Amino acid sequence: MKNYWDKGISFEEYVNTGKERLANPTTPQDKDYKQYYELGLQRMERTLKKYTPNEEQLKELESKNFDGKILIISETWCGDASATVPALVKFFEGHNEVRIFLRDSDKSLISQFQTNGTESIPKVIILDKDFNVKNSWGPRPKFGKELLMKYKADPEAYTKDQFYNDLQLYYAKNRGKDAVQEILELL
């Protein structure tokens, strides 16, 4: 895990990577994902402006005496990531170091943390101070998973567009609070 940590980047570098890929796409995926990079960057900016760490959650973090690190597998084009990664980075700021590992740069890490056989992101890996995996979380909070199950159970009655719309409304209102809480419970 230390090798993956060492290859990880800061949140600022993560955002800049997304902006660079949007401005100067070098791969077919970057070109195909243009709209997703735009949306992801806009959503991250909104989250950064509106997210304020919850005092009770900060007290809970302090009470856990967690001295490890947070490694997030992500990409800036990802809708789930754009809603949660900025909130997590701001929440842990000044408490625990956070780095981001770009999933598409090296699939060997995400292959160890698949969700039901998929490479879904973001994936949060909770590491102890010696880089041992303590736990993992992702790719979305419980409510987001419930929306996905509702869509998968009956895609004709609850369409993909309805699912995406409801999920983004939830993220906009929740502002990362549920993701932070679920991760706190894993520390």
Explain this structure to me?
- The chain has one domain (2-139, 175-184): Glutaredoxin, CATH 3.40.30.10.
- The protein is globular.
- The protein contains ten helices and four strands.
- Strand 1 (69-74), helix 6 and strand 2 form a beta-alpha-beta unit.
- The relative contact order is 0.16.
- It has helices spanning 2-7, 11-23, 28-32, 34-50, 55-64, 79-92, 107-110, 142-153, 160-174, 177-184; strands at residues 69-74, 98-102, 123-127, 133-137.
- The protein has a four-stranded mixed beta sheet.
- With 187 residues, the chain is an alpha+beta fold.
Please name the defining characteristics of this protein:
10 helices; 4 strands; alpha+beta; Thioredoxin-like_sf; 187 residues; single chain; Thioredoxin; Glutaredoxin; 56% helix; globular
**CATH topology title:** Glutaredoxin
With helices defined by DSSP (H or I, 4 residues minimum), what is the helix count?
A: 10
Q: Summarize the main sheet.
A: 4 strands, mixed
**Number of DSSP strands?**
4
CATH class: Alpha Beta
Class from secondary-structure proportions? alpha+beta
What is the topology?
Elements: H1 2-7, H2 11-23, H3 28-32, H4 34-50, H5 55-64, E1 69-74, H6 79-92, E2 98-102, H7 107-110, E3 123-127, E4 133-137, H8 142-153, H9 160-174, H10 177-184
Parallel strand pairs: 1-2
Antiparallel strand pairs: 1-3, 3-4
Helix pairs in contact: 2-4, 4-6, 8-9
Short description:
This is Thioredoxin. This protein is α+β, with helices and mostly antiparallel strands and 187 residues long.
